[in-house]
Amino acid sequence: MDYFRLLPEGCISEILSFTSPKDAASSSAISLGFKSAAESDVVWEKFLPSDYQHIISSSNSFLVSPSKKELYFSLCDSPILTDGGKVSFSLDKKTGKKCFMVAARELVISWGDTPHYWGWSSHPDSRFSEVANLRFVCWLDMRGKIETGILSKRTKYAVYLVFKLANGFYGLETANAFVRFVGRESNNEAEERASVVSLSRREGPSEKRSKRRVDGWMEIEMGNFFNDAGEDGDVEARLMEIRRLFAKGGLIVQGMEFRPE
């Protein structure tokens, strides 16, 4: 006998809202009594960020989601652009935590406005209107920043450079990367603990390996941090290769993504 069918649907929905998106999505297979409750807006409203309506209202994306569950998975699978197209927003499917990618145009890139060194163009695979194309530099340095108050609280985040390598790229074997709270740690202090990353995947034993994403881009982890109450001001991620002043070229940058680990 399916005893769960004896419970009021609202009671089951309330119980499921205290679980996780993964648990709720799979619970309908447990019992017929769970199926309807697991689809209810009561459950999936709890899994959406408390400020999701404000975030959606700042986007030009047209979302058609009859239910909160459909909205949840739409935001997981199809990032939306906010802040005038400068930032993309999505949800981590397993946890419902907030993910943000800062567009290349919003990064501070040394010589980024000098056409001889960097070019800007559209890219068919990019979620943003422009990507940065490294033509030639010896001094590679870029920074991305986000306000901790908009991130999910009590969450460990990692920051990733999202990029591609053009045919014939060169000089991108290794770079240094770090993440810091701007108000807590100076650049010099953070540089001392920077990790070595390899954009070209020709890494040594102590270097971080770049990985291919499901969207076809590459990513390399630059560092991580714990966002407690969202009251730590700005957090900044920096990638640089300014010691070995060899020629570098062929890097295509979509942005930097701040994503829950």
Automatic annotation (TrEMBL):
Please name the InterPro entries in this protein's record: F-box-like_dom_sf, F-box_dom, PP2-like
> What's the domain of life for this entry?
Eukaryota
Q: Which residues form the F-box domain?
A: 6-45
Q: Which PANTHER family match?
A: F-BOX DOMAIN-CONTAINING PROTEIN, F-BOX PROTEIN PP2-B10-LIKE
Q: What is this protein called?
A: F-box protein PP2-B10
Q: Which organism is it from?
A: Nicotiana tabacum (Common tobacco)
The gene coding this protein: LOC107784958
